[in-house]
Predict the 3D structure of the following.
Amino acid sequence: MTNDDLQLGMGSAITRRDFLNGVAVGVGAAAAGSLSLDFATLLAQGRAGAYPPALTGLRGSHAGSFEVFHAMKDGAFWKTAPQPQVTGEEYDLVVVGAGISGLAAAHYFQKARPGARILLLDNHDDFGGPAKRNEFTHNGRTYIGYGGTQSIDSPAPFSAVSKALVTELGIDMARYNKVLDSGLYKSLGLRSAVFFDKETYGADRLVTGDVRDEAFQAAAPLGDTVRRDLMRLLTERFDPMPGLSSTEKKARLARMSYTDFLTKLWKLDAGVARLYQTRTHGLFGVGVDAVPAQDAFGLGLPGFAAMGLDDKPGPGQNYDSIRSEEAQNYYFHFPDGNATVARLLVRRLIPNAIPGSSLDDVVTARADYAKLDAAGEPVRIRLSSPVMRVRHVGAAGSGQRVEVAYLQDGKTLKTVSARSVVMACWHTAIPSICPELPAAQKTALDYAIKVPLVYTNVFIRNWTAFQKLGVQRVSTPGMWHTSVGLDFPVSLGSYQHQTNPAEPIVLHLTKAACRPGLPIRDQHHAGRAELLSTSFATIERSIRDQLGRALGGGGFDPATDILGITVNRWPHGYAYQYNSLADDFWVTGGEPPCQLARQPHGRIAIANADAGAYSYTDAAIDHAHRAVQELLT
Ligand SMILES: Cc1cc2nc3c(=O)[nH]c(=O)nc-3n(C[C@H](O)[C@H](O)[C@H](O)COP(=O)(O)OP(=O)(O)OC[C@H]3O[C@@H](n4cnc5c(N)ncnc54)[C@H](O)[C@@H]3O)c2cc1C
């Protein structure tokens, strides 16, 4: 350990119950296709804490959750696979994947067939997919954070089906205004800020305010050319496409990136585009180099004011850049994000597993993971159980039962029998699990590449540094995580958010794993590889360095102020939404691959948000509903 490491507090006493530093090398080997790994050990490590929400270190797609599946995709697994053990377990429905889509599918099936025997299988040690809960405990108090899916929040209005489920789960959307302390941070004088790092901008400098403010521009280490060009962009009324109609302009904007729009049409210095580069990370998992200019217009980025563009969505416009008042008003953030939605679903499916009966008590209710897979219960959730093969017994169309093979404890291949199966897992996983699917459908499924993201929660001793600096959320565009912010001030039931800066709080950091300059899908592939090969130690060091430099002026000391770190890495994060730069069919109106991908096959139906190429919880629910209807008819 270097002096720098010691100053940053590397090796200090934060909880590292998942001891992932120790397996980082092995994970790399598995990702590269080696079968020399002891998967059972990896799985055991994933399960080291009996209570997954409280595990810290490298979580999300944790060690032990993906290696064996990658080995199967590489073809290595079946060469050495053990003979499957027939368990004799028979189910009316087996659901592959216990994310929100899988849980919702089980819910709809149970409603239609009360008493049905249902088994959900998931490769992770927790349910919910990215709708995950993180907990930290300090001095007897539990602090809750969201490890993925942040909120009930969708760019398009929820369908009647999704709204009905939200209501059925007891979520009163109108309550959000009452549980959110919306004025808290403002009352403390906290604003947003940008931290310019010396590696990217030549100097470390924290600048509060917004890029549109003159004081901000004067204080930021931008250089005269960037400052002048930024001023042009923000103030000049310029139409780079004179003489064209709104429709013609939008057609062109759909085919160029926002970066090109700024540098080639406006002819601005590249430093201006760099200022906006990470603005779209949260929506698309890539920067503005891969975001169409038409979508930048829809999102309100500057440069379009004098172009006379109408408000109607143009061909190829992304869902996220189409404004809907109705959708904006339908919003709820729980302290653990949409993990509450997952937990409410689990409570309905297996009431013993999560005590309580209301929205107020679910937030602090402790899930009993030992009760998720109890013999004799009609619904069972079997975690850390990657499904390796799903096939009809007999011919696909006429076979009356489906055999599902999964790996238990990382070493024992087991089979169960199902009358019906919902594949609610990631679509890219399905072709290798269901070899009997038609080739064209497999190609369509494989198109649904997921967007790699990281949501990290850092539990800190106090937030006086934020108060002294007058900041609530800091954009850090040049660093590994590109944003840092104080948790949402939400209180629900007996859970109270923090109001006193002298007390601990959960910080939320985000990263979109992307490679600016590459086509969007290549960026996602490269980002996934990066996430799977980056060790916790590397990420921890970057977090300590980042927080120390950005907040040091307020007295933050990474060596003493950090109490815990949970890195939720999601190599398979958002569902991929079609992009007019990459997907011609999306602009021309051709059939999108998700339509063929989600076709039922005999007794197997296909759900997941991928089925709608729409990266929101409502898509996961809608497609669970559709898939179950297909099996019931
Ligand atoms: C960081 C992040 C933030 C997000 N924020 C929001 C938000 O604020 N609002 C919103 O609406 N949406 C958000 N989303 C998207 C939202 O999480 C998803 O749209 C939704 O939860 C997807 O649910 P799903 O069940 O379709 O897929 P998933 O949740 O991905 O579930 C699929 C499950 O299948 C499992 N699986 C995969 N392969 C196998 C196998 N072989 N065997 C067994 N199981 C397998 C996976 O591990 C996973 O648990 C966010 C996503 C991420 C990653």
